[in-house]
Amino acid sequence: MDIRNHYSLKGNNTFGMDVVADCYIEYDTRPELLQIIRMAGHGQLPKPLLHIGAGSNILFTQDFHGTVLRSKIKGIDRVDKAALLKVGAGEKWEDVCDFCAREGIWGIENLSIIPGEVGGAVAQNIGAYGVEIKDVIQSVEAYSLTTGEKKIFTNNECKFGYRTSVFNTQYSDWAIITATLDLSYNPKPNIEYGELKNVIAKYHHRKPEQVDIRYVTQMDIREAILEIRGAKLPDPKNLGNAGSFFKNPYVEKNVYEAIAKDFPDAPHYPQPDGREKLSAAWLIDKCGWKGAVHKGAKCYDKQPLVIVNTGNAKATDIMELAREIQVSVYNRFGVNLKPEVKYV
Length: 344
Ligand code: EPU
Known about the structure:
The chain is α+β, with helices and mostly antiparallel strands. Helix content is about 25%, strand content about 25%. The strands form six sheets. Strands 6-7-12-10-11 form a five-stranded antiparallel sheet. A four-stranded mixed sheet has the order 1-2-5-3, covered by helices on one side. A four-stranded antiparallel sheet has the order 13-19-18-17, covered by helices on one side. About 45% of the residues are buried. Bound molecules: uridine-diphosphate-2(N-acetylglucosaminyl) butyric acid. Belongs to the MurB family.
């Protein structure tokens, strides 16, 4: 276990915010986590406790007065002969995707190349190209940060929603230890997401509607996602960012209809409950924000849903730009954009 006091979190968040935590602890085992919980219970660690993963969906807005925890619990283990995999919270998500592709295990190939670790991926129910991690989660093992109680959450008990779960409420009481993924050795290519299908069609020298799904491999899917993401999303190693800054909004039908009067081509996805899901990127783009710079923050040219740190951005630069974008989208379209990124 590695305990640091007065620790800079710059290397622990992909926005690259240079904030200081009173205390920062990395732990490698369950007993170490239990020891941390006991210490916190006895007032030997600054509170509150904040559990992070790779910090790829967090904006630290100020120094953190409390203890930041990070799991280094690893492991990608077969539970039995079937494709049930138990993966450690501190495992890099992409390493799990890579393992599955090499072993011919299907189910998470559409979630390839998403930054972050297993714990964070589960907590925020990552999703891309028509798949969410909740689709393959059988159960999640977690410890209460107040009592040390261990609980196995069934998929239902995780209460997964769009980028939400019981694990990513502000100062959630639960530290994820492992997640058990219910995957499959049977090929199950899902290329319904338009852009994914188009790129794979190109690889197969076919028109999108002519792609023969039987010949679509995991490598095709991973390659295509690498191409699509590479063209749109900035690499946090070069430009600090946390992926999509806002969630795609769900609106009442009349809100969409008002937009469609002026923009019949506005992307929209009808929902079973009668509402419409809109594209935040499209709304932001239509308000003219692409490439806009505010102090050290910038609305990314290739995907306006992403806000980047151009080098020395302060958290306030990013928050101010986000606020201005929200106000302008609201004034123009009457739609409230909510941050996907968690402010701490
Ligand atoms: N668009 C524009 N202008 C642009 C870019 C996009 O109008 O410059 C519109 C287009 O209509 C496009 C639509 O936005 O069809 C959707 O764009 P994209 O396919 O990139 O998806 P997204 O809805 O913007 C979501 C997730 C991403 C995920 C992709 C792919 C959210 C908040 N974001 O983005 O997740 O990778 O779909 O499935 O749900 C993340 O959560 O950090 C993330 C990157």
